[in-house]
């Protein structure tokens, strides 16, 4: 006996197929090439992103199931625009708010410096250049306060989730609308 979950499972399969076909190869190549693009905070960011994508799928399936093509077109375009804008902001923020440590691992800066760092960097805090951080020999806990680093981490995380939510929304709305159309 068919129920609403059977149709939702069909929608999920269609979404995964569209996502794999349109973004899979290009996105995987991009992530492979720029493996340092994921936020360094928190651990488990891929799993958190997957949960957000699932929530977007449920929202689209439940709320935007029977909308007109015009409405769907606006939602897809809006999602794509939000993705492009948030991607650009995210890349800028990640570059500006993080630095490579000597091992090449990306570390987050902070919005507030410690008193010791304020004296050492003489007015450059909190926007200290990567080279100055490397030359200081300090670790991020000696330069930026915990609160400052946590706020930067949350900022980068929110931008990341907005970016992935936008692309998930656009693809989910597209896949959901196409699922309802009759083959011509």
Helices and strands in order:
Layout: H1 4-33, H2 45-63, H3 69-96, E1 98-100, E2 106-108, H4 115-121, H5 130-136, H6 140-143, H7 146-180
Antiparallel strand pairs: 1-2
Helix pairs in contact: 1-7, 2-7, 3-7
Please summarize what this structure is.
Helices cover 71% and strands 3% of the residues. It has helices spanning 4-33, 45-63, 69-96, 115-121, 130-136, 140-143, 146-180, and strands spanning 98-100, 106-108.
Structural class: mainly alpha
- What is the radius of gyration? 21 Å
Strand order of the largest sheet: 1-2
Strands, total number: 2
Shape assignment: elongated
The largest sheet, given as strand count, sense and whether it forms a barrel, is:
2 strands, antiparallel
Q: Note the total helix count.
A: 7
Order of helices and strands: HHHEEHHHH
Give a quick set of tags describing it.
3% strand, DUF4199 domain-containing protein, transmembrane, membrane, 7 helices, transmembrane helix, elongated, 184 residues, mainly alpha
Give a structural overview.
With 184 residues, the chain is mainly α. The chain has one domain. The protein is 71% helix and 3% strand. The protein has 7 helices and 2 strands; from the N terminus they run αααββαααα. The chain has helices spanning 4-33, 45-63, 69-96, 115-121, 130-136, 140-143, 146-180, and strands at residues 98-100, 106-108. A two-stranded antiparallel sheet has the order 1-2. A hairpin with a 5-residue loop joins strand 1 and strand 2. Helix 1 (4-33) crosses helix 7 and helix 3 runs antiparallel to helix 7. The mean pLDDT is 80.
């Amino acid at each position: 006996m068919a129920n609403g979950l059977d149709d939702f499972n069909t929608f999920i399969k269609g979404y995964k197929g569209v996502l794999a076909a349109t973004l899979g190869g290009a996105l995987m190549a991009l992530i492979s090439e720029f493996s340092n693009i994921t936020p360094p905070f928190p651990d488990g960011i891929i799993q958190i992103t997957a949960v957000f994508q699932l929530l977007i799928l449920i929202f689209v399936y439940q709320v935007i199931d029977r909308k007109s093509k015009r409405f769907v077109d606006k939602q897809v375009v809006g999602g794509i625009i939000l993705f492009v804008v948030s991607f650009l902001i995210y890349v800028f923020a990640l570059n500006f708010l993080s630095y490579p440590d000597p091992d090449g691992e990306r570390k987050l800066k902070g919005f507030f410096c410690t008193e010791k760092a304020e004296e050492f960097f003489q007015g450059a805090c909190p926007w200290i250049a990567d080279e100055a951080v490397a030359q200081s020999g300090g670790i991020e806990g000696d330069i930026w306060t915990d609160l400052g680093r946590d706020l930067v981490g949350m900022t980068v995380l929110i931008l990341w989730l907005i970016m992935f939510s936008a692309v998930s929304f656009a693809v989910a709305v597209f896949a959901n609308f196409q699922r309802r159309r009759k083959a011509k």
